[in-house]
Every structure is written in structure tokens, then in C-alpha cells.
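Cast an eye over this sequence plus C-alpha cells and explain the fold to me:
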Amino acid sequence: MLEVIPAQDLCIQIDYCNEMVHIGGTGAKIYPWVRDAPYEELFKLYTSPDYILGHLKGLPEEVTIGFHICCGTKPSYPVHPLDTIRFPVDLANAIQKSSGGLIDYFHLPAMENSDEDYFAPLTDLDIGKAKIFIGLECNDGIEKMDKRMADAHRFLPDFGVAHYCGYYWNEEIMPELLTTLVEGADHLENGQV
């Protein structure tokens, strides 16, 4: 890629989904080939410097690097449901520490029913200058997205909005999802939440 795309124009996003689902214990419950192990052991393994830096090996520092910390979408969303954003926040903190501060942004998940209690752990983010994008567009309309943005904003004054995960499997409704996402981003930027 770097032969065609200048490093300063390249963004690499690491999909950190299988790791989260495995650490959280859901992977071993739904996939018979996934080894079950204690949370602490898996957390340490998947956030270790060796593991994290292995994803970044060979990338010039000019490349923008992001981590999409995902609850999983297959067989349905979320594969690993969350009561609060605490687990993704802990992962982001550990990943940034293990990377030596190399991560430029994190994408954190939201659930349809996310509220103030869900977002309260955002105050514990310790990721240096990295930006946060929250998957606040959950395919349920702008009013509910605005409510999630307002609840998240109480605990984190500066963040960007995103869809909860990828669009590839939403081809039929993608135009509507993108319209909602743009409208929500405009509301956030204009202080309407």
C-alpha cells in the first residue's frame, strides 16, 4: 500500500472484535473451537505490547492508526452485549499503553439502550491525544442517536460519531443509515445535543 499511498494519507484501522468477544467470554460460548480461559489471562494476552505492536510492525509514524473495538455483528449484533462502556474503555487504555501512545483514534461501541449509566466510564479514558469515535448510530433513527450523543457528552466533551459497526451487510438501508449519521454529526458539531 505504501508504494501507492503516501504514509501521511494512509489510515489503518485494526478490527479488534475477535479479541473483545474472546476476552469477554462470549466467543467460547458460541464457537466450539474457541478456547475458554479466565478474563484476566485473555485481557493480558490481547493487550500485551507483543500482541499490540505486532499489528503495527513496519508502519511509518505518519500513518494514522485506529482501533475499532467491536462487540461483533455475526451472527447478530451485538455478539458480546455490554451493560456499560467500561470494558471497551479498559481495552482502549491498555492498548494505548502497550502501543507506547501510537494509536491515533479509537472507535468504541454503543448499544441501542445506552444511557448515562452506560457512558459514565468514559471519564476514565487514559489514551493521551488519541481521538474517540463512538458508534452512536444504531439503526434506530436520529432522535435516539441524539439522546445517546447527549448522554455520552455528559462524560466526554469531545468525540466523533460513527455507525456501531460496518455497513457491508446493510446495503439496502445504507443510504438511510448514512443520512442519520451525517445528521447526527451535524447536531454534535453545532451543539444541538
